[in-house]
């Protein structure tokens, strides 16, 4: 299998800009992706998501992650346009992600879904387009559609979401282009170590959704002790753990002070003991569906 452009991805932070939100990873096709972004899962379409996007952009975020099924692409697009105008940010400085939903998997349907997402967002292209879930019997055809979009220059990078190792092997075995990103549920109770190692070995960037386990980890005693030692919040410790593992992450928040807090992870470093302690919390526990047993 060959990539559109062949670059090595060592999945380690490029520390030249590590003091701020411009810190990036280089994907296996040479495209750079911010390490930290804003997620908008379950944020209702309307003023709340518009303001969240604008707040994130004002604070230095350049990556925004949405999906067709979230139903808020139109307001994300409005927030992007208003943020660009308000803060003098160009489209080229941003990294915008969306995802094709299960009902639209299939070659022609996926191509149409991409156009629909662009229209709602009011954008000419996406920086990253993902298959949202590995629906059996459908995701291979959907991947062919993403390859077409990529080869035609309609999207900067393509990838998958919620894919386990065997799903990735299916796509890599049948497709012509290796996925650039795999976005999965990942947090201290679901460390995804085997999947992470597989992605590292194959130059696929792992990205975490629900990194804070939907708030369920914010009173954990192990994390609390580490956070107190560093003078940081538990959320900041978790996001720093992701960063030091070379994992892109997209915490969701609609409150500006939380968005600011989530972005303030570049001025401290977890010790090896900290990293080991957090890694030891793994229970393979999900808050979202199991990709192999999701009722589509």
From TrEMBL:
Gene3D superfamilies: NADP-dependent oxidoreductase domain (3.20.20.100). GO terms for molecular function: oxidoreductase activity, acting on the CH-OH group of donors, NAD or NADP as acceptor. The keyword NADP applies. Residues 37-282 form the NADP-dependent oxidoreductase domain. Keywords: NADP, Oxidoreductase. InterPro entries: AKR, AKR5G, Aldo/ket_reductase_CS, NAD(P)_OxRdtase_dom_sf, NADP_OxRdtase_dom. The active site is at residue 70. The record marks 99 as: Lowers pKa of active site Tyr. PANTHER family: 2,5-DIKETO-D-GLUCONIC ACID REDUCTASE, NADP-DEPENDENT OXIDOREDUCTASE DOMAIN-CONTAINING PROTEIN. Belongs to the aldo/keto reductase family. This is Glyoxal reductase. It comes from Paenibacillus pectinilyticus. The lineage of its organism: Bacteria, Bacillati, Bacillota, Bacilli, Bacillales.
């Amino acid at each position: 299998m060959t990539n559109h452009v062949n670059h090595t991805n060592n999945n380690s932070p490029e520390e030249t800009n590590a003091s701020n939100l411009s810190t990036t990873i280089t994907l296996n096709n040479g495209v750079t992706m911010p390490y930290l972004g804003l997620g908008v899962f379950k944020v209702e379409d309307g003023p709340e998501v518009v303001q969240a996007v604008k707040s994130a952009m004002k604070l230095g975020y350049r990556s925004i992650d949405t999906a067709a099924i979230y139903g808020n692409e139109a307001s994300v697009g409005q927030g992007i346009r208003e943020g660009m105008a308000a803060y003098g940010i160009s489209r080229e400085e941003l990294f915008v992600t969306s995802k094709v939903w299960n009902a639209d998997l299939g070659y022609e349907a996926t191509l149409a879904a991409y156009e629909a997402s662009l229209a709602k967002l009011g954008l000419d292209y996406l920086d990253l387009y993902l298959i949202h879930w590995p629906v059996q019997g459908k995701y291979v055809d959907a991947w062919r559609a993403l390859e077409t979009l990529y080869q035609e220059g309609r999207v900067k990078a393509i990838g998958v979401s919620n894919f386990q190792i065997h799903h990735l092997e299916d796509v890599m075995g049948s497709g012509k282009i290796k996925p650039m990103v795999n976005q999965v549920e990942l947090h201290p109770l679901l460390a995804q170590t085997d999947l992470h190692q597989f992605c590292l070995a194959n130059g696929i960037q792992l990205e975490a959704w629900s990194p804070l386990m939907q708030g369920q980890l914010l009173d954990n005693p192990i994390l609390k002790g580490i956070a107190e030692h560093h003078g940081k919040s538990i959320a900041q410790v978790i996001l720093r753990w992701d960063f030091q593992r070379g994992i892109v992450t997209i915490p969701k928040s609609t409150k500006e002070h939380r968005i600011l807090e989530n972005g303030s992870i570049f001025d401290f470093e977890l010790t090896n003991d900290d990293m080991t302690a957090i890694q030891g919390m793994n229970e393979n526990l999900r808050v979202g569906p199991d990709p192999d047993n999701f009722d589509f």
